[in-house]
Design brief:
The protein has 316 residues and is an alpha+beta fold. Helices cover 49% and strands 21% of the residues. The chain is elongated and about 80 Å long.
Length: 316
């Protein structure tokens, strides 16, 4: 939910701030509408209205989504429709605002504004991609696990299949990914609007890459089944690391801290590979080949017990 709030505030600030930041290079009135056939500007707004009108549209959309979530959301992952709506709407409005500012930049009169066709087409493509990404990410998010009664031992009845699932996330890493993502959008929008001499890709790529990498290390989904252990990263559950049950010599629970492994996220140290999203209990495996692998998850003891039982079944 906080990610959605941050996205809403960030988009609002960019919609209002972009034309105001370029006000010294813009005419008093901005071209805001172009003829479908001629491609020439045929409508305009004062600078303040051009800044506030898309912000008002975004505010209404964001409020409607938030109020609907407040009534229907039961916790866990934000529904896919909300992610897609906010993602598509925000990118569309930001791209449109950047295209308008760029078309009016350094023009003496709004009638001289350039075309926005390429900017609008590119914006819609990116917006559709972001919306689809949001839907896909929400669908792949696992349901919140229900608490189970403690059992002293793990017994797998013959002929039955048992699956253990766990998910962990780090809100600080997610916030950092959101921040770098907003910076990438802000720099990219400024480049598209012509406020910087840097090419769009050169300006936005470092922040976008940092956002994607941090987001990929901010959450993890762990699954133990007959096939072995699968650790999936990020909101899309990709990339993944897999170990067949017969390739795991042993599994155990071990407490690890950031000081031991060198920080948060995906870490390589003398202890092997550790995916540490919170300090404390980790599921640690000792594979038949390669170094040990650990991942911080809740109920790691049950996962380790199941993995040991499955490994023994395959190798026994």
């Amino acid at each position: 939910m906080w990610g959605a709030v941050g996205w809403g505030v960030g988009v609002l600030a960019l919609l209002v701030g972009l034309p105001l930041a370029a006000s010294g290079r813009l005419p008093d009135r901005l071209a805001t509408h172009w003829g479908a056939g001629s491609g020439r500007p045929d409508g305009s707004m004062p600078l303040w209205a051009a800044a506030m009108f898309p912000a008002l549209i975004w505010g209404v959309l964001a409020v409607v989504v938030m109020l609907t979530l407040r009534r229907t959301w039961a916790g866990g992952a934000v529904p896919g429709w909300a992610v897609a709506s906010l993602g598509f709407g925000g990118v569309t409005l930001l791209g449109g605002q950047a295209s308008i500012v760029r078309a009016n930049l350094d023009r003496a009169d709004w009638h001289e504004a350039g075309s926005v066709t390429s900017g609008v087409v590119g914006t819609l493509v990116v917006a559709a991609t972001v919306g689809a990404f949001g839907l896909l990410a929400a669908r792949r998010a696992p349901a919140e696990p229900r608490p189970e009664a403690d059992v002293p031992t793990l017994d797998i009845p013959a002929g039955q299949r048992v699956v253990w699932l766990a998910r962990t996330s780090n809100s600080w890493l997610q916030a950092l990914a959101a921040l770098t993502g907003l910076l990438a959008i802000a720099v990219g929008v400024a480049a598209l609007a012509g406020l910087t001499d840097l090419p769009f890709l050169l300006a936005a790529t470092p922040f976008a890459l940092a956002s994607v990498l941090v987001l990929g290390c901010s959450s993890v989904q762990v699954r133990v089944s007959e096939r072995g252990l699968v650790v999936a990263f990020g909101p899309l559950g990709w990339p993944t690391r897999r170990w067949a049950a017969e390739d795991v010599e042993s599994a155990r629970v071990e407490s690890r801290t950031p000081a031991q492994v060198g920080g948060w996220g995906y870490r390589l140290s003398g202890l092997g590979t550790t995916v540490l999203l919170r300090g404390g209990e980790c599921l640690v495996i000792h594979p038949s080949k390669g170094r040990e692998f650990a991942v911080s998850v809740d109920d790691a003891e049950r996962g380790a017990a199941l993995l040991n039982s499955l490994s023994a079944r395959h190798t026994g």
